[in-house]
Design goal:
Strand 1 and strand 2 form a beta hairpin. With 223 residues, this protein is mainly alpha-helical. The longest helix is centred in the N-terminal third of the chain and has 17 residues. It starts with a helix and ends in a 15-residue tail after the last helix. The radius of gyration is 20 Å and the shape is globular.
């Protein structure tokens, strides 16, 4: 494991990436029945950074750069419903109540996907987005997945696609393609919008499925 860690540092992997990959290897060793403590007695450390949520100006530039209608709807859903990446990846049209403007977050056993904490939730979305989705659905009645690929399969490249759009929109650092734009920023912006409402904190936690809402773990968008 020490050699593995040295090699990752040699390749200039970030401390968080090193820790994530270390944990993946550790899980595999545990699955194989090996004693983890004797092989890797100390886990690599990293600083827990607080990402910045998108500003309104960045969101405007981001969506202006999206020309594909389905991608536009996909990232609007992520933003307005605060979905996590896999929740969006396996979102089907049957999960949408277009009459009431509700997104139903459910597990998808046939895809091997289980929702966080095994707790379902219903999240309201704005009428403007609901109307847009109704119009799209009318012209694409055969699609099963709302955010799927052209062949109607789960889109496993949502994060990579968003990073590319962010880069093209010029709201990154200008030096790389992936420094800004993780899907979690949509999750955080949704929280900031949600916290401005009169909904009790317990209701916000249930909608987000996040126990740390209201405990200082999220930073509002830069104004």
């Amino acid at each position: 494991m020490d050699r593995y860690l040295r090699e990752m540092r040699k390749r200039k992997r970030s401390p968080r990436t090193i820790r994530n990959r270390f944990d993946h290897v550790l899980s595999f060793l545990a699955y194989c029945g090996l004693e983890k403590k004797s092989i890797a007695p100390q886990r690599p450390k990293y600083e827990m950074k607080i990402p910045q949520a998108y500003t309104h100006e960045e969101l405007r530039d981001l969506f202006s750069a999206i020309k594909d209608e389905k991608l536009y709807n996909t990232f609007q859903i992520l933003l307005c419903a605060g979905l996590r990446e896999q929740e969006a990846m396996y979102l089907s049209w049957s999960d949408l109540d277009l009459e009431r403007g509700i997104v139903k977050v459910r597990s998808k056993p046939h895809y091997g996907f289980a929702i966080k904490d095994k707790e379902e939730r219903d999240v309201p979305i704005p009428e403007s987005l609901t109307a847009r989705l109704r119009e799209y659905r009318a012209s694409h009645p055969a699609e099963k997945l709302l955010t799927g690929t052209k062949t109607d399969c789960p889109n496993h490249k949502l994060l990579r696609t968003l990073k590319r759009i962010v880069h093209n929109a010029g709201i990154g650092c200008g030096h790389c393609e992936g420094c800004i734009g993780p899907l979690h920023e949509c999750h955080r912006w949704f929280l900031h919008r949600f916290r401005a409402t009169a909904i009790p904190m317990v209701g916000q936690r249930r909608a987000m499925r996040h126990c740390q809402v209201g405990q200082g773990s999220f930073r509002p968008p830069r104004q």
